[in-house]
Amino acid sequence: MSGHTDMVLVDENGIRIDGRRVDEKRPIKIEAGVLKNASGSCYLEIGKNKVLCAVYGPRECRPRHLQDPTKAVIQVKYNMEAYSVTDRKRPGTDRRSVEISKLIAEALECVVQTELYPRASIDVYIEILQANAGTRCAGLTAASVALADAGIPMRDIVPAIACGKADGNVLLDLNKEEDNYGQADVPIAIVPSTDEIVLLQMDGNMTREELDHGLDMAIAAAHEVYEIQRDALKRRYASISKKEGESDE
Ligand code: UDP
């Protein structure tokens, strides 16, 4: 955020460097149930971001001192692969990945019925295979689908998307150049059935009016992401039912 570039991020017609309008999100592809050994899984692409998520559990919480006698703990590990970006990214955990893991876990705790599984752990692994800004939103969106695929009871699934500002324009779903050289990046996640906000961060500066406008765009777009998540789960259940039907014959 707030690096300098001579690049025109939004032209005089309101078109961005990847050809999108200011209120347009990147194309999204979601597939549930892509990993056999996990309890639930999801592969997601949004623009050039590629994310794989695996969920294990509920299972006995390890290390034991993290157990909660009243509910399951959600342990999230967000990891950006060393090869996911063009510059070299040092492999392993860093402050950024610890922060992102924590805020994704907190967002998921708002919807997962953890009280049903005291002392258990629900382990969520998010691997960023290719990054182009918006990976925390992509990771959380994928994690919700993977949890549902694992059959873990949830009040709702969580879609996430960012709004922000670049070249003085309020934008939906920033790409890497807009994130790096723009004026603000505001990732948001909601519970669609209530419009409750379960993740909201702000890096950079926007006026109150710009923020309100950006949030309106992001919330509307999050509802569209939700439909794509639901479609992925419907396809997954249809394929499971088909396989079960075939094995009964
Ligand atoms: N990025 C990078 N190296 C890093 C961290 C981030 O190249 O060590 C890039 C990557 O494309 C990422 C983007 O910068 O998606 C924006 O990162 P940010 O921390 O804003 O998180 P994100 O938008 O991915 O949730």
Question: Can you describe this structure?
Answer:
- With 249 residues, this protein is an alpha+beta fold.
- The chain has helices at 95-109, 135-149, 176-181, 208-248, and strands at residues 28-32, 40-46, 49-60, 73-80, 120-130, 160-166, 169-172, 184-191, 196-200, 203-204.
- Helix 1 (95-109) crosses helix 2 (135-149).
- It is globular, with a radius of gyration of 19 Å.
- The structure holds uridine-5'-diphosphate.
Secondary structure tally, helices: 4
Mean pLDDT: 96
The small-molecule ligands in this entry are: uridine-5'-diphosphate
- Largest sheet properties: 5 strands, mixed
Approximately what portion of the residues adopt beta-strand conformation? 25-35%
Total number of beta strands: 10
- How far do the termini sit from each other? 58 Å
- Structural category is alpha+beta
How would you sum up the global shape? globular
Q: Strand order within the widest sheet? A: 1-2-3-5-4
Output the helix-strand order.
Answer: EEEEHEHEEHEEEH
Radius of gyration based on Cα positions: 19 Å
- Runs in which pLDDT lies below 50 for 5 or more consecutive residues are none
Helix content: 25-40%
